[in-house]
Amino acid sequence: MHLKRRLVVLGIVSIVFLTTYGQKVNQPNILFISIDDLRTELGAYGNSQLITPNLDALASQGRLFNNHFVQVPTCGPSRACMLTGQNLKKVSDISHSHLAKQLTGKPESEYPETFVHHLKRNGYYTVGMGKISHNASGYYKGKLELPNSWDEFVYDPNNPWKQGLLHAYANGRTRGKGERQPYEFLNVKDEQYPDGMLANDAVKTLERLAKNDKPFFMAVGFFKPHLPFCAPKKYWDLYNHDDIKLSPNPDLPENVSNVFLHDSGEFFGQYEHPEKGGAGKRLSNAYAKNVRHAYYASVSYTDVQVGKVLNKLKDLGLDKNTIIIVWGDHGWHLGDHTIWGKHSSFERALKSTFLIKTPNIKKPGVSTDALVASVDIYPTICDLAGVKKPIGLDGQSMIPILENPKAKGKDIVHSYWRNIISMRDSRYRMAIFKKDGKEELMLFDHAKDPNETKNIAEEHPRQVQKFKKALNQIDKGFLTN
After folding, report:
1. Peptide bond before 225: cis, by omega within 30 degrees of 0?
2. The pLDDT of residue 18
3. What is the pLDDT of residues 352-373, one digit of tens each?
4. Where do the Sulfatase N-terminal domain residues begin and end (predicted)?
5. What is the signed CA dihedral for 395, 397, 398, 402, rounded to 10 degrees?
6. Which helix (H) or strand (E) holds 9?
């Protein structure tokens, strides 16, 4: 093809692309919903036990990602990677306060602190509420955690929970002395827990934004199903307790070193239980079922709050030009491998809910198996908004997958926790532990063993070497001590 003709064709493609996915003339609004500790437990993911009609309906209108993986299996660092589009650089960065320490109180620099800041600089009115970075109030030591990202952060310092929103029980109670139960279901209204109040704030904010001439980016960070698993009792009553299934992999995986396991310190250390487990020690089936029931009920409670926001968006007519993104900040073990919580390099902790709905999405409701990562969200949002991407991002745009659910994603997604790097391709997951000259490996074949019950690293040295070679190619120096 002659150069002139090629340039004309590329110009036409660019015009069509920007018309579909947002442009300066008519930039789309963006509603970003983060949900804490939400593993791939939705009806849309094939779990028929979960009652999540609002998120399921959204998935039927957009693109559900079956293989989305976070970079870090804990809240603060995972959100830091998502917001900055960059991997962490060293082990000490794996801290809830990492992003706050980097940004809070610092003057604005030329490079945007987050993709929210970048959108703000490019014509968006940005509003945040709930848990977006890490602190549930959006503040760190009395100052905004993301000082240059928000035009407005919705937070009432006089709320009944004060700074205890994340670990809230009903009616202003928070975890502390005398309040350490892992779950609670009382006959109260939705608004008597923080997420119910947050949904109401989101609805009121949308009503204001509908009158604004600027395109908006609104982020709503729901707290549940983070511990403690709390919600009005009607959500517990949605489920038949006898039907709750136990984990399909409740025992330790075979041939796995203890360095990859943990004693569920958050779950057992911060909450009181009638019995206590740990690495290799299972809870009784009866208590395990109680906890799983509580998690499911919390998910259903959050689903209803999400529905309130989505319904208001539609009632206002904003859905016709609004991109909706739902992101779970990491997964969560529900007794899998005898673990209760996150903080692991297994699939359960690293895979989380992720879906995108655009007004003109092609093949809506068709999910994708493409491998994607949380660091890919930043460049994708830039493309959706028609905003030039800053240099230095570690992620890649997911636009091809939104165009075609069969499009290829990443070859490998890598994640990390302390001195462990975990790598996932379309079939295998390998994790490698390195510290003080010691190395441990675990490898799982997801085609034959999707629940990661047997470490086959010794049986597949070629696959191990393939991952090690890939790690050398992508390692930019992160996770140094």
Report:
1. yes
2. 41
3. 999 999 999 999 999 999 999 9
4. 28-387
5. 170
6. helix 3-21
User: Is 108 inside a domain boundary?
Assistant: yes
Q: Cα–Cα distances in Å, from 452 out to 226, 336, 347? A: 24, 10, 8
Q: How many CB atoms lie within 10 A of CB 13?
A: 10
Query: Residues 33-51: what's their mean pLDDT?
Result: 96
Across residues 226-249, what is the average pLDDT?
Answer: 98
Strand residue runs (E) in 14-124: 29-35, 63-69
User: What's phi and psi for 472, nearest 5 deg?
Assistant: -65, -30
Residue of 68, 38, 30, 72 whose CA lies nearest to 401: 68
Instruction: Check residue 475 and give its pLDDT.
Output: 61
57-86: average pLDDT: 97
Q: Could you tell me the two tokens for 327?
A: 């992101």
Phi, psi of 473 (to 5 degrees): -75, -35
Catalogue the active-site residues.
75, 134
Count Cα neighbours of 471 within 13 Å in the Cβ-side half-sphere.
22
3-class state of residue 341 by DSSP: strand
Tokens 């082990």 map to which residue? Answer: 91
**pLDDT for residue 337:** 98
Residue 99 · residue 83 · CB < 8 Å: yes
Q: Which domain, by its residues, includes 62?
A: 28-410
Report the C-alpha gap between 133 and 27 in whole angstroms. 25
Residue 275 lies in a domain: yes
State the total domains in the chain.
1
120 located within any domain: yes
Q: Could you give the CA distance from residue 323 to residue 31 in angstroms, rounded to a whole number?
A: 6
Tell me which amino acid residue 147 is: P
Which runs of E-coded beta strand occur in 284-332?
Answer: 322-328
Q: Identify the CATH number of the domain in which residue 390 sits.
A: 3.40.720.10
Q: What is the per-residue pLDDT across 152-171, written as a single tens digit (0 to 9) for each?
A: 999 999 999 988 999 999 99
Cα 210 to Cα 107: distance, rounded to the nearest angstrom: 31
Beta strands, E only, 104-204: 125-130, 139-140, 143-144, 152-154, 183-186
Asked if the structure places residue 452 within a domain, the reply is no
Helices and strands, number each (H, E), in the chain: 13, 18
Tokens 């991997």 correspond to 87
Q: In what order do the strands lie in the sheet with 420-424?
A: 413-417, 420-424, 428-435, 438-445
